[in-house]
Automatic annotation (TrEMBL), chains A, B:
InterPro entries per UniProt: NUDIX_hydrolase-like_dom_sf, NUDIX_hydrolase_dom, WH-like_DNA-bd_sf, WH_DNA-bd_sf, WHD_NrtR
Pfam families in the cross-refs: NUDIX, WHD_NrtR
Protein name, as recorded: NUDIX domain-containing protein
Residues of the Nudix hydrolase domain: 10-177
Alphabetical list of PANTHER family matching this protein: ADP-RIBOSE PYROPHOSPHATASE, SLR1690 PROTEIN
Length: 248, 248
């Protein structure tokens, strides 16, 4: 791993991405596991080049992990507590990864400190949170130099991540729920065509509660956001559902 | 003015505050004019101390300009374009404020550059936008060392501000409109007690369109956010409106 150089990046600023994908009534988040010894999961993160817009940086980080461009992306919150880079996390990281520790050979009794080239890991970072909504079937998760592995995890069964990363996911989900009706962005989680039943299942999964079928359908259609396509031929013609497509 | 020292603040990070106040069917923003020569208006801004949460920093900046604590505050957007600190602004600033310019006496033909102690003015800053909703009647606008004056301006008649500050106000207003129904935060713009007519006028002002009286009243009351108090005694008892208070 190459720590960011002082010159290249805006210092003390990071980007954390919550990449949501949906499949079979389950909302998932793409979470890499850091290549360090120990079970350190962390959201896909990165830094901002001095000549790069922050939105561009977020797109770059997303593309590195998903392999796809043109992902639906929303900035949702800045994590800016002074003490968010917890000492507990650092202590455990050092304990399990002794190669990160610098010791002064003159004084073996001093506190272990992290080696110069890794000290950005313990600095204060103000992190801009972005969430992405992707069609999970189009993503082939990609490891970067930083990762041991990268997997989809159900929102309800996320691993314990470093620092405040679990809270970041909570906040992203809260924002998604809060503005979903105005932004009509949930459709980005579906394949290009879908049935009304697919939409209802998706909404029920995101909000974690059931909706009455008739009201739901009426509400969705009243938004004038969907284009109705042909019916799916199932053999039982009268039961065949319509396919829809989102009109961007 | 004292430029921020390298050690004290998180570098390249600023906070810009859009302070909304409401009075007589007009939505206003509190805008200081910089003490430089020339008409440079800029949103109330500041920096983040190394040991300070970003929300604390925003509260400090707000208190400096409004004199009040416990202001309703929402983070709404990070302005992070690489080129947002425009050269045009800098050129005009230097033109009107020659004392900011450093000239190399060895070479009088070189481009004018800004003096070292002011060079943070031309650096790239990533700015976190906060909007505040205040009861305008409680605010006594305060000038800081940076300001020549500070005034309320109608959102519809804002002065041309530096950099992207006018766009920042637009974005704040857009966010306020988008989440007002879920956050029920508009009441922070009113005095402690108000009539239903006051609420309707406020909403009409924020959304810049009329609402039908009956529907509006029904919608507001269905939110269960208001506590009904006694009637205002006006002499014509049957026309006296109820007073309401927001239940936080």
């Amino acid at each position: 791993m190459h720590p960011p150089s002082e010159q290249d990046y805006v210092q003390q600023l990071s980007i954390d991405c919550v990449i949501f994908g949906y499949k079979d009534r389950q909302l998932n988040v793409l979470v890499p596991k850091l290549y360090f010894q120990g079970d350190f999961w962390a959201l896909p993160s990165g830094f901002v080049y001095q000549d790069e817009d922050i939105d561009e940086a977020a797109r770059r980080i997303l593309q590195d992990r998903t392999g796809i461009k043109d992902v639906y992306l929303e900035q949702f919150q800045v994590m800016g507590k002074a003490g968010r880079n917890s000492r507990a996390f650092l202590d455990r990281l050092i304990e399990l990864n002794p190669e990160l520790v610098a010791r002064n050979p003159e004084n073996l009794r001093e506190e272990p400190t992290i080696r110069r080239e890794y000290d950005w890991f313990i600095r204060r970072f103000i992190s801009i949170g972005y969430y992405a909504l992707v069609d999970l079937t189009k993503v082939i998760p990609q490891k970067t130099d930083l990762d041991q592995s990268i997997e989809w995890y159900a929102v309800k069964h996320l691993p314990q991540m470093i620092m405040d990363h679990n809270e970041i996911v909570e906040k992203a989900l809260e924002t998604l729920r809060l503005t979903l009706d105005q932004k009509l962005n949930a459709f980005n989680l579906l394949p290009e065509t879908f049935t009304m039943k697919d939409v209802q299942e998706l909404y029920e999964t995101i909000f974690d509660k059931p909706f009455a079928r008739n009201n739901f359908q009426k509400k969705i259609l009243s938004m004038n956001a969907l284009e109705r396509l042909e019916k799916i031929y199932t053999g039982a013609a009268n039961k065949a559902p319509y396919l829809y497509r989102f009109q961007k």
